[in-house]
Each structure stands twice: as C-alpha cells, then as structure tokens.
Specification:
- The complex is a heterodimer of chains A (about 400) and B (about 140).
- By secondary structure, chain A is α/β, with parallel strands linked by helices.
- Chain A has 14 helices and 12 strands.
- In chain A, helix 7 links the parallel strand 5 and strand 6.
- Chain B is globular, with a radius of gyration of 14 Å.
- In chain B, strands 1-2-3 form a 3-stranded antiparallel beta sheet.
- With about 140 residues, chain B is an alpha+beta fold.
- In chain B, a hairpin with a 4-residue loop joins strand 1 and strand 2.
- Classes of the chains: A alpha/beta (about 400), B alpha+beta (about 140).
Chain lengths: ~400, ~140
C-alpha cells in the first residue's frame, strides 16, 4: 500500500478551516484597529467582536453578554475555577478523576490553599455515577466542575443530569467542554450549565483563542486584571482575528453537526472493529455508547505507547498515547488508571481521533499499517513471549 | 525531541533478537514502569562476540538498547563493564532529560548479562545486581 499522510490526532488540534482563515485574515492587516478605540477602524473591530459574540451565544443558546473570549480552554477553566474559589474564599469543590490537567491542577492548587475537593470515580466506560455526585455534595460545596467529554477516551458525561442535580442544590456547575464543543449539540439553558469552557482549535478554529460562558449572576472573580475589555471581566486587548475565527468555526461545525457526527461515528466504529478484530490482545478503552464521534482509544498489550506513536509516524500516521513516556512523567495517563487499567496495559495505549476531514481511505490505511507496526514492536518485546496462548 | 541518531536507532535498531544458547542473559526493568530490556551475549575468550536485545519500552529505550549493543559488540568484557549510560547518551547525540533513565537501564542490562555469564561459569566478580533506575515511577522494579 502506498504511504500516505493520515492526521488522526484531532483531539490534540485540528486544521483551521480555509473559510475560517479567510474570515480572519482581514483583521490582521486591514481592520487592525483596537476595538477600544473611537475611530472607525477601531469600531470595525468592535463590531466584528460583537457579531462573533452573538454567533457564539446562539450556538450555546445563551445571551451574548454571557460570553467571555479568552486565550483558550486552559484559561477558561482556570478563570472559572479560580474565579469561583476566590469569590467564595473557602469551601469544597467536586470534580472527577479524569479531568484535563487544566482543571485537575487548578483544583489541586486550590487544595494547597485550604479548599477541599472530591474527585469522583468513573466506571469502566469512563462515566461518573450521579449517585456518587449527589452523595458528595456538602453544605459548603461551592462548585461542581465536570468535563463534558473526555479528551483521551471520549466518554461523554450525563451533563443534563449533572446540571439538574447542581441546580437542585443551587451549586454553580462548570463544564470543560473543550472536546465536546463543535462536535456535540450544547444548550446551556436546557442543560443547566452555569459555566462552560471551549477552545477554538479543537473544531477547525485557530489556536490561542477560546470562550468561557458564564451565566448571568454567577460572577467568578476577575482573573486577568487591567482594561475594561469583555465588560471588565477579562482584561487585555482582544484577539480580534481569533475571536472572529472562533465564532466562524463554531457555527460552521454546528451547522452540519448531525451529518458529520453520523459519518465520523461510522468511521470510528469501523476503526475500532478493525483494530480489535485484526490485532490480538487489544482492548477498547471507554464504552461504545456515549463516546465522542471521532474518538478511538485502545490498549495494545505487550508494547509501549510511545514506540507505537513513533513507528506510526514513520508510516505517515499521526496519533497519540497515554503512555508515561508521552506525558513527560513516568506515570501513565491518570484517565486510563482511573478506568481501572493496570500500569502495564495503560503504557500501551493508542489514541486515534478523527474528524470530518478524514476519509474511508484513511481508515483503510490505518487498519493496514497498524497491525504491521504492532507486529514489529511485539517481535522486539521481551514480554510478548509471556502472552497466555504462547505458554 | 529526539536527535536524528535516536530516531535512526529506533527505526532501524541494531542487534534485535535473541541468541540461542547465549552465554549470558540479563533483564532489567519492569512492565509497570514501561521499560524492560533483555540482553543476550555470546562470549569467546573474554570477548563479546555477539550481542542481541529485546526491549519493551519507548523510543529512547529501543535506541539506547540498540546503541549499547553496538558499543560492546566485539569488545572485551572488561571494556563492556566500563560502559556508562553517559557514553550511550553521547553516542546518541543526547537524550531528553526524562529519558536518561533509559540509558541507565541499557548500562544495567549489559552488566546483568555479564554477571549472568560470570555466575554460570563460576567466575568470581564484583558486579552488584543492578539496581532500579526508575524508582521514581513505581519503586518496584524486578531484576532478573
């Protein structure tokens, strides 16, 4: 088979849509005015931001004044969590064991400052228990922060049910929707979401730009102080082109979300079935149901994930892994460990994340290349001979 | 970021495999930590005439195994015992800091294979059973 380039790491980042780039470009060289300035090219920028804010608000079903543009998902998460903590001064936060580090490290930092935290477990499919959530709520719980969909295993949490519980107990509910936005329909009213983080580069928008939705009345404490931009909620001259690109990418993604989701899910399922069918000693991480359309995460036993990623790259396939070696630490992914995987199996994880830019030929190619790469690495592995059917 | 040399030794590893009736076999590391190296040596007249390895691990683990075998092949045992993880790193044009432990494993795997050869042949030696280079990860490495 002819070597091809297959980008299958869309949970890491995506290619900017050409239409999005075209919308952004004038704001670098033509409409470069500062939105805070009074003259006409400043006003042009201010109008562009106003329109973008309206577009994003429509996508999430909220009021434009509830949208704060930020530098991305991490800033939005930090702003929401630190902001609520600083507003309340003390108290208890409920989150999960499988959050992105932008949430996890923020909550851990607050614990060092005297806040308390509960980290909810997940089942073997990567989903929290609503019962455990409800039982964890205390009189001094100031925030529930639970991710919409997981970045590694694609598990989608029961957000509407979580929102209903939070609302019933009158506790603000933040969700890190970085992996969900643009891929799933979100309605912050219907789902009782009080704060929501998203990041443009996960759905065909530019890097370095994101959104924090904050329901009116929630008012997390300001995080970046300075000018009066974003109605005084987030200082700093606006990333006008980035904001325009965010809105354009989000509305484009949602315009065709149903058809794209059906097509991408079908490719995902073929990829999962192909890998599990063709390669012995593999297992799917996360459940089949409530899974992001583009997420495939498998453990390939008896080999190590980073080697797998490097060798796939030599064959033109971009993928990622939750192995310790790719996380920069010596421990494998906290998400895979929370699912109950052993360290050994977690080290051999492979994440392939596809989107509407991928084709059936890409899937065929991965299914052709991956078994060969796995065979090669297993032949080199001193633990492969220990497999049960070799004894 | 890996150097070109690391990528070369990862994508075309030298001396992969096993030696049947090897004179010495050494294995270090632990699957829990994500790295296991096994080295096989053939010894003739105190010279390491052949060496092969099998490795479960990251790119750096494979590359350091490959480079370490290259550095000791055809060398007297006394010289192989002097091989340091630093020499392996230098030969690979450097390793990222988090990967230094892989080079330590490679050094230890060679020592473990030579120790096995000495033990099998009743030759006195003062090679200590290699310690664990990755105790920061799980603290439970097994040495065989």
């Amino acid at each position: 088979m002819e070597k091809r380039f297959v980008y299958a790491d869309n949970a890491a980042t995506t290619r900017v849509r050409p239409e999005v780039l075209a919308k952004m470009l004038p704001y670098f060289t033509e409409h470069y005015g500062n939105p805070s300035s009074l003259y006409s090219i400043g006003r042009d920028s201010a109008v562009a931001i106003m329109q973008a804010r309206k577009t994003v608000a429509d996508c999430l079903n909220c009021d434009p004044n509830e949208i704060i543009f930020t530098s991305g998902g991490s800033e939005s998460d930090n702003m929401a969590i630190f902001g609520m903590a600083k507003k309340r001064g003390r108290g208890h936060i409920i989150t999960t064991k499988i959050e992105h580090h932008a949430v996890l490290h923020t909550v851990q930092a607050l614990e060092k400052e005297g806040f308390e935290a509960t980290y909810l477990d997940v089942d073997s499919d990567g989903i929290i228990s609503l019962e455990q959530l409800e039982n964890s709520i205390r009189d001094d719980t100031i925030l529930i922060t639970i991710m919409y969909a997981n970045n590694e295993i694609g598990s989608i949490q029961p957000i509407s049910e979580i929102g209903a519980i939070a609302r019933r107990h009158k506790i603000p509910f933040h969700t890190d929707a970085v992996q969900a936005a643009g891929h799933l329909k979100i309605d912050v009213q219907a789902q009782n979401i009080d704060m929501l983080s998203l990041s443009a580069h996960k759905f065909g928008g530019p890097k370095g730009t994101g959104v924090l939705y904050v329901r009116r009345g929630i008012n997390p404490k300001n995080f970046i102080l300075g000018g009066a931009q974003e109605r005084g909620k987030r200082a700093g001259t606006e990333n006008v082109a980035g904001i325009v690109g965010t809105a354009c990418a989000l509305s484009m993604a949602l315009a065709q979300v149903d058809t794209v989701s059906a097509r991408v899910s079908a490719m995902r399922d073929r990829l999962i079935d192909g890998i599990l069918g063709k390669i012995p000693y593999t297992r799917l991480n996360g459940g089949r149901k409530n899974r992001l359309p583009g997420n495939v995460n498998v453990s390939v036993e008896y080999i190590e994930g980073e080697s797998l990623i490097l060798m796939l790259d030599l064959n033109g396939v971009c993928a990622s892994s939750g192995s310790a070696c790719t996380t920069g630490s010596l421990d494998p992914s906290h998400v895979l460990l929370a699912l109950g995987l052993s360290h050994e199996v977690a080290h051999g994880s492979l994440r392939l994340t596809i989107n509407d830019e991928n084709t059936d030929e890409d899937i065929d190619y991965i299914l052709q290349v991956l078994p060969q790469v796995v065979d090669k690495l297993r032949a080199m592995s001193p633990v492969w001979e220990n497999r049960p059917d070799n004894r | 970021m890996y150097s070109d040399k690391v990528m070369d030794h990862f994508s075309n590893p030298r001396n992969v495999g096993e030696i049947e009736n090897a004179d010495g076999v050494g294995q270090v590391g632990n699957a829990k930590c994500g790295d296991i190296m096994r080295m096989y040596i053939k010894v003739d007249n105190d010279i390491i005439t052949d060496v092969k390895f099998k490795t479960f691990g990251c790119g750096a683990a494979v590359a350091t195994s490959s480079m370490a075998t290259e550095l000791i092949k055809g060398k007297p045992i006394s010289e192989a015992l002097k091989l340091t993880n630093k020499a392996v790193i230098e030969a690979l044009d450097g390793l990222p800091p988090v990967k230094v432990h892989c080079s330590v494993l490679a050094e230890e795997a060679i020592k473990a294979a030579i120790k096995d050869y000495y033990d099998k042949n009743g030759i006195a030696h003062d090679i200590e059973a290699p310690g664990c280079s990755c105790d920061s990860c799980c603290g439970s490495c097994e040495v065989h």
